[in-house]
Amino acid sequence: MTFDDVKLITLPKILDERGNLSFFQNEDQIPFSIQRAYWIYDVPGGEHRGGHAYKDLQEVIIALSGSFDVVIDDGKNKKVITLNRSYNALYIPKLVWRKLENFSTNSLAFIVCDKQYDAEQYIRDYDEYLKVKTNG
Ligand code: TYD
After folding, report:
1. CA 114/CA 102 separation, integer angstroms
2. What are the pLDDT tens digits along the chain (136 aa)?
3. Which of 10, 46, 76, 83 could cross-link 63 (Cys pair, CB 3.0–4.6 Å)?
4. Where are the domains of the chain?
5. Which fold has domain 3-14+31-135?
6. Which residues line ligand 1 (CB under 6 A)?
7. Which of 48, 49, 68, 103 to mutate to test the pocket of ligand 1 (most atoms within 8 A of CB)?
8. What is the Cα–Cα distance from 8 to 84, expressed in whole angstroms?
9. Other CB atoms closer than 10 Å to residue 108's CB: what's the count?
10. The overall pTM is greater than 0.70
11. Which residue lies with its CA nearest to atom 21 of ligand 1?
């Protein structure tokens, strides 16, 4: 997996004088069937979240409110993607190192993924990540 597999998906926007609405549903806007959703909020200034990769788990990250940066790393290159629109969904496949940082006040990160929670899915050690990437 490399950066080429990370995709910024523009979700549908229904614009209305009463306000805007966006959505996604399984396998239409996002390329997997959702098994779990979680969200990160009330992040104190200067804190970061994540800082790991998943062995076999795909996810989509949305800034439902506010903004934050997603730093992705494929073991060779790093890239920073700022999420600040609730109609943008960042797709991250398995085996991409990712970290969320630079959270604005009252930001809300919403994440959906294709697997139920399993601590065994995490690679939390960067050197171990590099080994997995090198050895396949
Ligand atoms: P973790 O994934 O380490 O947070 P982050 O990547 O944002 O830094 O999760 C923090 C804690 O929450 C950890 O003890 C596991 C627990 N957790 C669940 O029980 N279920 C979940 O779906 C998630 C994402 C985390």
Report:
1. 26
2. 677 799 999 999 999 999 999 999 998 999 999 999 999 999 999 999 999 999 999 999 999 999 999 999 999 999 999 999 999 999 999 999 999 999 999 999 999 999 999 999 999 999 999 999 988 7
3. 83
4. 3-14+31-135
5. Jelly Rolls (2.60.120)
6. 36, 38, 40, 49-50, 117
7. 49
8. 12
9. 18
10. yes
11. 117
